[in-house]
Amino acid sequence: MRKVMVAKTAGFCFGVRRAVEKVYEQVKEGKHPIYTYGPIIHNETVVEDLEKKGVQVIQTRHELEELTEGTVVIRSHGVEKEIYDRILQKNLNLIDATCPYVKKIHKIVERESQKGSKIVIIGNPEHPEVQGIKGWSKTPVTVIESEEEAEKFQHSGENQICIVSQTTFNYNKFNKLVEIISKKRYDIIVLNTICSATEERQTEAGKIAAQADCMIVIGGKHSSNTQKLFEICKKECENTYYIQTLDDLDATSLPSMGCVGITAGASTPNNIIEEVQKKCQI
């Protein structure tokens, strides 16, 4: 008989749930027009549902400049300080749904850069959270994602280096990159800003994958934290599949016996996880 194990940490994290709820609150209150700066979360199902309710996504500074009225919700990933300031300058209604963990990084980067520190972000330079964090620094920022980049990193100034992390970065990889930079003997302070929910989710996913004959990771294709979960699970279990919804699941690939493990990224609604779980139990 097939056993199904679902990670307790699978699905919406606190920051994502809070952001999504804030948008639905605006819809319920009839506050129109409503815009989100970027998709509220990296989950197409949720974004499409909000679009049906009249919530529009703006992606660029240019689109923001064209707005003359309405509510702009800043998503959980946060934005650069200049975007934040511009929304207020235009007298638009600002709803800040930035995850508190991300907000904490903004404050650290702003404070440390004001002191003259060189800011280093461990993370994906293309990710909106990292781009937002960069925008709170008063000094030039370096983003490091790989061991090769960490090896090449050089700092010529006398100033201290302040290292922070994207909240959803792989915990073990973060430590490895910090270790490489530390060997260069610069004056550094390291602030591990990976959120505790991300660490717990990654640890639990790895443990389940190690016991499973097949592992299913559910999440949006653009979700950074889901991609990290997939990498972690694939190391432990060769038969690991990355799906967005039940429609992507090939039930014939599941073992008829043994254990199927399921985890999901922070942007995955519970109903999708439940649908996949039921399908695996058949």
What do these coordinates show?
The N and C termini lie close together (10 Å). This protein has eleven helices and twelve strands. Helix 5 runs parallel beside helix 6 and helix 9 runs parallel beside helix 10. The chain has a four-stranded parallel β-sheet with strand order 1-12-10-11, sandwiched between helices. A four-stranded parallel β-sheet has the order 3-2-4-5, sandwiched between helices. A four-stranded parallel β-sheet has the order 7-6-8-9, with helices on both faces. 43% of the residues lie in helices and 19% in strands. With 282 residues, it is of the alpha/beta class.
How many helices? The count is: 11
**Secondary-structure element sequence?**
EHEHEHEHEHEHEHEHEHEHEEH
Query: Strand-residue fraction?
Result: 15-25%
Distance between the termini: 10 Å
What is the CA-based Rg, rounded? 20 Å
Largest sheet: 4 strands, parallel
The percent of residues in helical segments reads 40-55%
Average pLDDT works out at 93
Shape: flat
Strand order of the largest sheet: 1-12-10-11
Instruction: Compute the number of strand runs.
Output: 12
The unreliable regions are none
Helix-and-strand structural type: alpha/beta
